[in-house]
Design a protein that fits this description.
Elements: E1 2-6, H1 9-26, E2 31-34, H2 41-52, E3 62-65, E4 67-69, H3 80-87, E5 99-100, H4 109-122, E6 128-131, E7 153-156, H5 159-165, E8 178-181, H6 184-188, E9 192-197, H7 203-211, E10 229-234
Helix pairs in contact: 1-2
This protein binds 2-phosphoglycolic acid.
């Protein structure tokens, strides 16, 4: 794994945005696997700015997002589709019909999981998958488990994730209890992985996930086995790595 330490959030964002922009410049019809959460917002700000300046052209690109809350539709301001549209899609010249997020309103988990996997295949697979990491080591909504989930599926969110995400909702009771997420297998089938991590509160999980053993108890640890991974961490997130 290529683990790069940068000074702070701004440097992390810029470097990751450069990697994504370079991907689209080199291959305009790239399939970008994207992520929500606080961490990627700075990356999306950079991409929006560079697109506006004419430095990157997203007109031929496609996107697939990692996950979506079950039960929330696109117009719900807590849905991940809404987040992506606000922070990126509406600010770049991408064709909205080529932006994809799991459909939280599909009541049949099996149907939605199959549809999403087939869609990724039809697009030709993911060229680069952007990832953040949860405090418990989750990627997408793949929570600590006794096995690695292969494909897109419906998950029950853990108390830790519900607690971490309640800041975006009026009350903890409003946080959805389930989500659709790409599986670990879906993520690992991306040609490249780009992981971004910021902040001292992620230092323990960085040490565990990238310097510890590979285990489904720490889902992100699996990326140690991917052949093309770049992890960009700020100094605070790297503050507890073993000597
Ligand atoms: P965060 O979320 O970027 O808001 O910390 C990361 C994640 O839970 O995957």
């Amino acid at each position: 794994m290529n683990i790069i330490t940068v000074k702070n959030y701004e440097e992390m964002s810029k470097m990751a945005a450069h990697i994504l922009a370079a991907q689209v410049i080199a291959k305009p019809d790239s399939v970008l696997g994207l992520a929500t959460g606080s961490t990627p917002i700075g990356i999306y700000d950079c991409l929006a700015e560079w697109c506006k300046n004419g430095e990157v052209d997203f007109s031929k690109a496609a996107t697939v997002n990692l996950d979506e809350y079950r039960g929330l539709d696109h117009s719900n301001d807590q849905s991940y589709y809404y987040f992506m549209n606000k922070h990126l899609f509406s600010r770049i010249n991408i064709d909205p019909s080529r932006t994809n997020v799991p459909d939280g309103t599909e009541p049949d988990p099996e149907k939605e999981s199959k549809r999403y996997e087939a869609l990724i295949q039809e697009l030709g697979g993911i060229d680069i998958q952007l990832l953040g990491i949860g405090h418990d080591g989750h990627i997408g909504f793949n929570e600590p488990n006794s096995f690695f989930d292969k494909e897109t599926h419906c998950v029950d969110l853990t108390e830790m994730t519900i607690e971490a995400n309640k800041r975006f909702f009026e009350s903890i009771d409003d946080v959805p209890r389930q989500a659709y997420t790409m599986g670990i297998g879906t993520i690992m089938s991306a040609k490249k992985i780009l992981m971004v991590v910021t902040g001292a509160d992620k230092a323990d999980i960085v040490a565990k996930a990238f310097y510890g053993e590979v285990t489904p108890e720490v889902p992100a640890s699996i990326i140690q086995f991917h052949p093309n991974v770049t992890v960009i961490c700020d100094e605070a997130a790297m503050s507890k790595i073993p000597e």
